[in-house]
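Attaching the record inline, Q. Sequence:
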Amino acid sequence: MRFSIRGRMTLTRVLLSLPVERLDLRDQVHTILRTEIIRGRLEAGERLHVGRLADRLGVSPTPVKEALSRLTAEGLVKLGARGGTFVTQPTPASIDEIFELRELLEQFAAERAMAVISDHDLNDLTTLAESLKSRVNPDGSLAYEGFSSDDIAFHNVLVGLAGNERLVRMYQDLHAYTIVARSYYQFRTKAPGNDVDSRIRVYHEHMAIVAALRANDAAALRAAITEHLTAVRRFSHRAAALFATQALSGDS
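Structure, as predicted:
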């Protein structure tokens, strides 16, 4: 079953539903499409039609074309071999490359953050980590958009504490790419890694990062980040395998 927005939705209505700041039209359209990709509303592998997107958002094709160009540069959208524009489908090789970089950047940022982190910052991270647990329903289902938003916020806050804006932008682009794979897999399977125990484990992994920061333990911090990202990497590889299976069966 496809998870997407159907029907016409004006730009004003979309903006009311998203945390978009006062930006010009091109930035607004880019923010909306980027958010829809990250949240799984525009699926990995889905073809993006400029005219249809423009009509749904209530804008001309020009800002949509510019937004797609920016998303292509960010790696969230790609041009097909036979033409057309598609939401990027993660591959095993690209997943490994992304996570190698994420681990390096996040460990560096977290160790920088350790020197300046306050009790208030630690409490914010704890609240976000605990929110992940609250998003898991007793039946094992997941309030996915809330879970994803809390996860993004946790890592952005952590990396942001390093005080390096360029690093934050690099990290956000890498993180967005991994969320594309995770969101696709999240909605379609109950295989190992997408069950209630695994989701609760994600909460514990985030709490381990907070505990290491609170203890000012750099070695434990590096280990906690590695453990968490290794688990997410395995999860993302399952998404890539699912893409490959569907492509072979003609279901994609």
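Residues 13 and 70 are 23 Å apart (CA to CA). Strands lie at 47-48, 77-79, 85-87.

More tomorrow.
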